[in-house]
Amino acid sequence: MFEGPVQRLIDELARLPGIGRRSAQRLAFHLLAVDEADAERLAQSIIDLRRQVGTCRRCFNVTANEECSICRDTRRDTRSLCVLERAQDIVVVERTQEFHGRYHVLGGALSPIQGIGPGQLRFAELKARVVAEEITELIVATNPSVEGDTTALYIARELKPLGVKVTRLAMGLPVGGDLDYADELTLGRALVGRSEM
Length: 197
Known about the structure:
alpha/beta, Dna Topoisomerase Vi A Subunit, Chain: A, domain 2, five-stranded mixed β-sheet, two-stranded antiparallel sheet, 44% helix
């Protein structure tokens, strides 16, 4: 519909999650209207993100350092580990101010239909951390979905024999939903009311 760079930008923006064609078009025209310095700052931020950000060597959170700020924080409970599907879920749990331990990001959930088995996720690293860091409790905070529940059961079956207490977030989170959409109060209560698996 539009020519050259405008249409290419609209096409690229429309590929982003949650951005439809109309939103992409609005964003493209907004970027045409901003100061060149603002547009360049946005472009440089994207380039810096891709070049400088990686994953924490311990928990697999996103970081620009070898270890993330949570893993480096000596005030955190080193015996408690919250297991999540995605790094962005850490922010959601942190907003509750109910959890003071560390995290482990699996990188997804078990889904045999999609070909995602234990080997495609960070289960081996989780098991190694439980042993090496002498973890006493694993809080499994996978999404309340079939895949999340399957992942939680797998973790409990594999790691309880190591003598670690494995708990799951209490109900109150919508089944089939993502942690991204849970409010702080609901997620906080789910953390407090977690139960052993």
